[in-house]
Amino acid sequence: MAFPPDTSKTTKLERYNSYLRRVNSTKLLAASSKLLFRATLLAALILILFFTLSYPPLSASSHNSPYGSSHRSLLSSALYGGAGSAAVGGASWERQVRQSSTARRPGGMSVLVTGAAGFVGTHCSLALKKRGDGVLGLDNFNSYYDPSLKRARQSLLGKHGVFVVEGDINDAALLAKLFDVVPFTHVLHLAAQAGVRYAMRNPQSYVHSNVAGFVALLETAAKRADPQPSIVWASSSSVYGLNEVNPFSESHRTDRPASLYAATKKAGEEIAHVYNHIYGLSLTGLRFFTVYGPWGRPDMAYFSFTKDILQGKPITVFEAADGDREVARDFTFIDDVVNGCLGALDTAEKSTGTPGGGKKRGPAQLRVYNLGNKSPVPVSRLVAIIEGLLGIKAKKHVVRMPRNGDVPYTHANVSLAQRDFGYRPTTDLASGLRKFVKWYVEYYGIKTPASTASTTSSSAKTRKVGGGGHGIKDSTDTEDTGDSSLSSSA
After folding, report:
1. Kind and range of the H or E element at 241?
2. Which of 55, 144, 198, 261 is catalytic?
3. Is 275 a catalytic residue?
4. Signed CA dihedral, 296, 298, 302, 307: sign only
5. What is residue 398's predicted lDDT score, i.e. its pLDDT?
6. Is the pTM above the cut of 0.70?
7. Assigned superfamily of 74-292+332-372+409-426
8. Hey, which of 23, 33, 155, 319 has its CA 20 to 30 A from 300?
């Protein structure tokens, strides 16, 4: 009788081999874990070393500030993107900021220009840089109108040595960082949400930029900056609101705004008074009257009229609701406004406050001025000039002005600015629009009937002098450098 094979020894051997495999696997896993831990620790040390080198401690002034270094957050080392931008707080970024802000002339200013990629901000930045002042720009490049135009302005500024930091005026950490890196002597505060009618669709944007943003800047200037800068900022002729006394004077009532935009600008004037009174900040407000010119804002009437006429679209022209008079504006050419801004900066006195927000040493300068052209022009005249420059007849749709915050008439009395810093506007509307239209057709690469006629009649002369037509009539004139809103916004 056969017996089954004895498998006990085989089973024991298999169990022993299985045990050895488990032991070896455990040892391998432990070794792998140690290697992974060491690699992770090494990577962490490398990252710590990298950030230590890239984001050095703030200047010594921060140690004397009531905010202290603990006030910093990760926001201050975030990437703000945009052409020419760098990591905020990095060594390369600080070099660009300091280089752009350093004056090249004896006694020159170091100016922080907010809204630097905007219309007025770009022109003022270029003018300051040209005369040898240090200029640093700040802009958030929002999409209220075509951001590509703002980027083009930023590129223009970069070519002239002006660095534009991309960031929001409400970012307290960013503002504090800028004032820690550069002891600005002046601030030209032009950043704001512009436009009258847009406030009916997006009111919060006006409170965010025009009120909260202004407070954020003043808080930093009063409590963080050392020395405290002198501040010139953009108010607006819209603050005159329902005032019917002409021409508008700085002594007239401004407590009846007709739009939320105007109300936020009026609030800015009252806020400026508070920071001047408590902290000794030197503050100058400028009430702009319908600024126009090359590199202008697409939401303004002259810009949108030009665009629509060239595209064969009808334009909407407003007439006063009461029918007693034409809608008219005190159109002010950009070069005249720039001269006014620089005059205000040049005559701004030093702030009298104590860095850190302490007791002020004495009363500080507080001013407000009109910057207009002294000669209101009916909108019908504006349209006629553009028609002549383009060689195209406009298709007009005339309607009564709706009650949406626009006022029918603006007229500036500029005698105060003339007395205090020699402000004298010299550009009439026809001359200013000629320069604007030249820029417009060149920037957008447009051929117009006027340019064709001008080129045909003067081609021999053009070849002789080696020049080219600019696309509008009177090509011998030199060029400097969303609606059909008739607002007098900045």
Report:
1. none
2. 261
3. no
4. positive
5. 84
6. yes
7. NAD(P)-binding Rossmann-like Domain (3.40.50.720)
8. 155
